[in-house]
Amino acid sequence: MTYHTARRRALGLVSSLALFGALATGAHSQAAPHPGASNAFSTTHFWDDLQLDYLPGDTWERLRDNLQWQDRSHDARVQHWIEYYRGNPSNVVEIIERARPWMAWINEKVETRGLPGEIALIPFVESSFDPTARSHRGAAGLWQFMPGTGDALGLSRLNGYDGRLDVVASTEAALDYIELQAEQWYEGDLELSLAAYNAGAGTVNRARHAASARGEPTDYWHLQLPNETMQYLPKLNAIAAIIADPEAHGVELPEIDDAPTFAKVTVEAPINLAQLATVSGMDQAELSALNPGLTNGSAHPATAEVVLVPIEHEDAVLAHLTAPLPPGPGTGAEQYVVVRGDSLSSIAALHGSSVEEIRQQNGLNGDVIHEGQRLDIPRRSLAAR
């Protein structure tokens, strides 16, 4: 099985040595726009990129249409996990509710690549669909990327941005890496690639060599691997079997529409999430939950490519971001409204200014500011707009 994506071909340039022993996958960083890019803000949602003739409907029906490994449900290990999940239906529902903002979008990405639908459920096993999940070993995000693998794939983790926590970036990178490993090591065998995703390619390759030396099959289901990896695909296949026929397994799945839940706003200038939520009438917690990769609550074009906003607020957000800020009383200044948690240093960093410039512009003798206060920001510091 061969998959052709532009991103996979780009990842082929990554050193296989750097990826060989990785424990988990990594994500691409959200590259900054070209310095000559237009200053006009724009928004897109995932249907803009849809390459299939498909009308929005039910997420679970669409996923069922793409499941390809249902014959594995008879395996004893899969049956064990089916019984486990059946015995904890409330836990299954809780995890699926957490997946609500992302499930339809991930489905679409998996489908456009021609991958088995089961792969859309990997975050169920990896992180319980929690984009902020962190393991004791250092993995983070929906797809549980280890720092080393993320670094090898160009994942940015600086200036208030962590691509491992960015659902858009991490999903694309996870699918890229799964495809890359399948082709590089396993002649397109995605099950072996998923085992390597969990245990590292080195561990899986050594297990295959040992099995071959014993004259045994070298597919995933016959290998001797670490216990966690031995259970990895059975867990994935078990939850897929339940979703394929929830009624037969005594689980009532929450309904999730197969429709856009978020829009992507291009970051052409610094964006403060708290301020954006206030002026656009959004719930700040909801906006932050859609953007877990923005670890300091703001996006800068040097590190983040997009900000996600609830689809129902798309028009209000775009109207705010494209409207010029009112001029301040000082010459050559624009205004910024202080939100909870702001400091002069964070505001200066957000706008490419300095604390001293903001003090001078506003006649401040110290660093004390308060929520709702309007500050004049020197216009030259907003040149990124």
TrEMBL record:
<dbReference type="Pfam" id="PF01464">
    <property type="entry name" value="SLT"/>
</dbReference>
<dbReference type="InterPro" id="IPR008258">
    <property type="entry name" value="Transglycosylase_SLT_dom_1"/>
</dbReference>
<dbReference type="Pfam" id="PF01476">
    <property type="entry name" value="LysM"/>
</dbReference>
<keyword id="KW-0732">Signal</keyword>
<dbReference type="InterPro" id="IPR036779">
    <property type="entry name" value="LysM_dom_sf"/>
</dbReference>
<dbReference type="InterPro" id="IPR018392">
    <property type="entry name" value="LysM"/>
</dbReference>
<dbReference type="InterPro" id="IPR023346">
    <property type="entry name" value="Lysozyme-like_dom_sf"/>
</dbReference>
<dbReference type="InterPro" id="IPR006311">
    <property type="entry name" value="TAT_signal"/>
</dbReference>
<feature type="domain" description="LysM">
    <location>
        <begin position="334"/>
        <end position="377"/>
    </location>
</feature>
<dbReference type="GO" id="GO:0016020">
    <property type="term" value="C:membrane"/>
</dbReference>
<dbReference type="GO" id="GO:0008933">
    <property type="term" value="F:peptidoglycan lytic transglycosylase activity"/>
</dbReference>
<dbReference type="GO" id="GO:0000270">
    <property type="term" value="P:peptidoglycan metabolic process"/>
</dbReference>
<feature type="signal peptide">
    <location>
        <begin position="1"/>
        <end position="31"/>
    </location>
</feature>
<comment type="similarity">
    <text>Belongs to the transglycosylase Slt family.</text>
</comment>
<protein>
    <submittedName>
        <fullName>LysM peptidoglycan-binding domain-containing protein</fullName>
    </submittedName>
</protein>
<dbReference type="InterPro" id="IPR000189">
    <property type="entry name" value="Transglyc_AS"/>
</dbReference>
